[in-house]
Amino acid sequence: MEYKPKASGDQAESSRLTAGYAKVSKSKTIAYGLGPLADQMSHQMFQFLVFTFYYAVVGIRITHLMWGFIIFAIWDSINDPLLGPISDRTNSKFGRRGFWILMSTIPFGLSNIFLFTVGISWGYWVKFAYMLFIIMLYVTIYTIFYYNELALFSDMFESEEERGYANMWKSVLVIVGVIIGFVLPTIFIKPMVPANDTVEEVARITNMYVITGIVVCILTIIAGFAFFKWGMQESLDHQLQTKEESPGFMTMLAEIVKNRDFMLFCFANLVKWFVFKLLTT
Description:
mainly alpha; Growth Hormone, Chain: A; two-stranded parallel sheet; 10 helices
């Protein structure tokens, strides 16, 4: 159902939803960085802990971990173009990006806990299946949150001056999120791996991982809702496009392939993320 803006003075003219482009305040520009802070805090914890947890604590063999993460990487590369057009065509009183940020914030937070809730008494292949399921679910929810946060940037900030100022604060808060994501595990998990293979020791270490997930869950939800309330501004002009006005997936893909500069950017970005993943592994 398509959302129709009402007369001036109602929600469509609120500070978060506007019936046209409106300059973003400095406080809202800074608050936008709470979204990147939330996603990087969670994602860095994921990169830092998940491989170690499933290998050294749960006991998944390295060959099976390799195949599991290959499947995970394939799904991660597919879900972006699948989920993106859904957001682009959303019409909601919360805005097309705001709707998905609101819907994904709590699941995104909770997924940080479920990454580590593996039953100690489960069979080996049940543990492996759970790992594969939960990391794919995590990255799906992460993509919903991250894609809409990222897509909002170009909607909110139209001039080079605005984007430069917003990027500065975004970078600062991303660094804060990365630091939190790396430091928290070292506070709550000591040691990182069990001293022996007894059920009691494995349970003790697993509980430390779960506690870390709970803390990151709470911080992610707080930052996510703060981002939704104070760091978002959308123009209803963007979300009132009809499906006919929005290009299809294959049309967009054809245009992207023709754009040489964008393809070079994609390659450079691929190399960057390959290095990031390699370092964290």
